[in-house]
Design brief:
The complex is a heterotrimer of chains A (360), B (272) and C (74). Chain A is α/β, with parallel strands linked by helices and 360 residues long. Helix content of chain A is 44%, strand content 19%. Chain A has 12 helices and 15 strands. Chain A starts with a strand and ends with a helix. Helices cover 14% and strands 23% of the residues of chain C. In chain C, the strands form 2 sheets. In chain C, strands 1-4 form a two-stranded antiparallel ribbon.
Chain lengths: 360, 272, 74
């Protein structure tokens, strides 16, 4: 397919359509509303389902309903709207029905603003649905990656019967970049829906899809099944990108847009003969634990760059056992750092390394 | 459940419904949930739609409804059943989709969901159990608790100045243009139970005819939390609830006037 | 028209609502206990008065009644 200039929000919506998404339920919220509007136009054209719900609470529950019927379904929202969806996400995780959600993060907390941020890392990766539930979290850094990961998210969700989050931010949602969409896949036929789905108890025992297990031992056993799924995801689905790490003394660890602008800063730093490279996690859950652990044996310092007050930072500290100094540079509240700021931070880390060497 | 006739000249005319699972329920003795479940199951059997029905259970005493019906079921968060039903019906329009909700579920936490499902004219059937109290959580005030009624969160009796007035959901939803059939019936005696079954059947037929949103509100009892015996509780419905929540059909297909209540003026003591 | 009813004691919770609707007063709670610990309802109809009117089955919250009636003449 040809490359075309695409707006992030429109790109992920169309990518989902091309991946056979059958239903979209959502609610307007800046900075992702273009996705809803694109779905409002395209889904009826294709004879698929679109509903603008009365709230994000209703939207996620419509998704839940469609998911129980074995339908490929998604929603999208932004930070305050995602908070409203947390109840539904927990029920969905606890019922093991697959779905995809694109979270286009914005400044917070509270109403915050509509500028880009990464301050919901903890919410989506560590917290999120109540209970011992996890969601696969994918972090694209370009519109092309946003397209590719959204299209793949459905298969991941269905393979593990879990929620897959595509964690973007307002800049990715709003920016326009040349990118390529995948070819169209037709949605599954009704008769090809999964065996566990609610399709009418014809010629079989009725199915009940529920997340309530009143007996604690039964609930624990069920949780152990969920945990087994998450361990399998951790074994099979870790993804990350690396650049310039061979021979690097400093590693910048950053995801999404922060990873992208860090790369620009890193290339400028390398022009100043600073041996710095980038590790960009693409899956935040499963976190690239093993790669981080080894990284702490390969470099002398790590700089975590985020558009928040330090959230992935905690996971980096943990995974590296802080074997080397872990530095942090972040802007939050919707401020997008300029590559020059990250470059300054890299220079700072370099200067400290040189000071320690001088002392040693 | 053998239907071997005790005497070969006798034939079974009333049997355990096929759409009801052969599972004893956890409901209290005399609780009208059991009557409502049976009526819904009988209607599903009569319409022959057991194998294409998908129910949505809510949160309340009926949270385990999926154990008591022999149809596919999804379990919704508190109040959200109309949204799940929307997601299911929109993507599986050939299925018969119904929700089964209590008064807290539908009229309190789920007020937005039911209003908008009706506004969108979602082609679903809603069974609304109104027993004027929160049963499962031990007897707190519901949006439909009567003025002056004592509950654990209105221990001095509901004071409308402080705790608001009860909501008449059938009247409210009948005014919504997307609602095609809205009726309130009662389960307090045989005559009214038979009328309730007719209304439930109509509410499912409206869905089959693709006419829009259909709801039947069923005045129900909660003997345990009302602190009454089973029969006493049915009498409370007749004497105290029916005068405030009039019975009748508030919207029928073709009755276009919003808010055109078609209460049939059922005398509260009628049918005994 | 002759009739009779049977009560599934695995379902009956002894709520007693049926005893109030039987027009012939043929239903009463027993004094014995069912397996579930309730006093199940029993039909006592020595004079064959039951007509299979179904009222008991309509009021029963447990769908515990099976109601029988004479087959209509062909």
């Amino acid at each position: 397919m040809a490359r075309q200039l695409l707006k992030g929000n429109v790109a992920f919506a169309e990518a989902a359509i091309r991946a056979g998404c059958e239903a979209y339920f959502g609610y307007p919220i800046t900075p992702q509303t273009e996705a809803l509007e694109h779905m409002a136009k395209r889904m009826p054209e294709l004879g698929r389902t679109f509903v603008q719900a009365e709230s994000e609470v209703a939207a996620i529950n419509m998704v839940y309903g469609a998911a129980t019927a074995g339908v490929r379904v998604m929603t999208s929202s932004s930070s305050p709207g995602v908070s409203l969806m947390m109840e539904g996400l927990s029920y969905i995780a606890g019922s093991r029905v697959p779905m995809v959600i694109v979270d286009v993060m914005r400044g917070g907390p509270g109403l915050g603003n509509i500028a880009p941020a990464q301050s919901d890392y903890n919410q989506m990766v560590k917290g999120g649905p109540h209970g011992d539930a996890r969601m696969i979290v994918l972090a694209p850094a370009t519109v092309q990656e946003l397209i590719d990961l959204t299209a793949e998210a459905f298969e991941l969700a269905e393979r593990y019967r879990c929620i897959t989050v595509v964690l973007a931010d307002g800049s990715l949602g709003q920016m326009m970049e040349p990118a390529e969409l995948p070819p169209m896949t037709e949605p599954r036929r009704a008769e090809d829906r999964p065996a566990w789905a609610l399709t009418g108890a014809s010629g079989r025992e009725p199915h009940a899809i529920t997340s309530i297990y009143l007996d604690p031992e039964e609930e624990e056993a069920y949780n152990q099944e969920l945990q087994a799924t998450y361990r399998e995801i951790e074994r099979q689905e870790v993804r990350f990108e690396e650049a310039y790490l061979a021979g690097a003394r400093i590693a910048v660890v950053a995801f999404g847009t922060a990873g992208r602008l860090s790369l620009t800063a890193i290339e400028a730093a390398r022009d100043e003969d600073i041996a710095v490279g980038l590790l960009r996690p693409v899956t935040l859950f499963p976190f690239p634990e093993e790669r981080l652990r080894r990284l702490a044996h390969e470099v002398d310092a790590i700089l975590v760059v985020e558009m928040n007050a330090g959230q992935m930072l905690g996971d980096v500290r943990r995974a590296t056992r802080e074997r080397v100094p872990i530095h942090f540079f972040g802007r939050t509240g919707g401020v997008v750092p300029m590559p020059e700021e990250v470059l300054d931070a890299i220079r700072g880390v370099q200067a400290e390394l040189m000071r320690e060497e001088a002392v040693a | 459940m053998s239907v071997q006739a005790p005497n070969p000249t006798l034939a079974p005319v009333v049997r355990y419904p096929e759409a009801l699972a052969p599972t004893p329920t956890h409901y209290c003795p005399g609780c009208t949930h059991g009557i409502a479940h049976r009526l819904v199951a009988e209607v599903i059997d009569e319409l022959g739609v057991r194998e294409e029905t998908i129910g949505v259970a809510s949160v309340g005493c009926s949270v385990f409804a999926y154990n008591y019906f022999s149809v596919d079921f999804a379990q919704a968060p508190h109040g959200r059943a109309p949204a799940l039903a929307t997601g299911i019906k929109r993507t599986s329009p050939d299925k018969v989709v119904f929700t089964y909700q209590g008064d807290g579920d539908l009229a309190s936490i789920g007020a937005a969901e039911i209003l908008h499902a009706a506004a969108r004219g979602e082609n679903i059937t809603v069974i609304f159990i109104n027993n004027a109290i929160y049963g499962m959580t031990g007897g707190q005030m519901a949006p439909t608790t009567l003025a002056g009624q004592r509950t654990t969160s209105s221990p001095l009796g509901r004071d409308v100045k402080l705790q608001g007035h009860p909501l008449k959901m059938s009247e409210i939803l009948a005014q919504v243009d997307g609602a095609a059939y809205v009726a309130r019936r009662s389960l307090h005696d045989v005559v009214n139970i038979r009328r309730a079954k007719k209304a439930i059947r109509k509410a499912f037929e409206v869905q089959q005819q693709g006419l829009g949103f259909a709801m039947v509100e069923l005045l129900s009892s909660c003997p345990t939390n009302w602190g009454m015996e089973a029969q006493e509780a049915l009498d409370f419905i007749r004497d105290d609830m029916v005068p405030f929540y009039p019975l009748g059909e508030f919207k029928v297909p073709g009755n276009g006037a919003p808010g055109g209540a078609k209460g049939d003026g059922q005398h509260p003591k009628g049918g005994r | 028209m002759k009739g009779t009813v049977t009560v599934d004691e695995a379902l009956c919770k002894g709520c007693g609502l049926c005893t109030g609707v039987c027009p012939k007063g043929l239903l009463a709670l027993s004094t014995r206990f069912s397996e579930r610990g309730y006093h199940p309802v029993e039909l006592t109809d020595p004079d064959d008065l039951c007509t299979g009117c179904e009222l008991c089955s309509v009021i029963c919250p447990e769908a515990a009644f099976t109601v029988y009636r004479e087959r209509a003449a062909a």
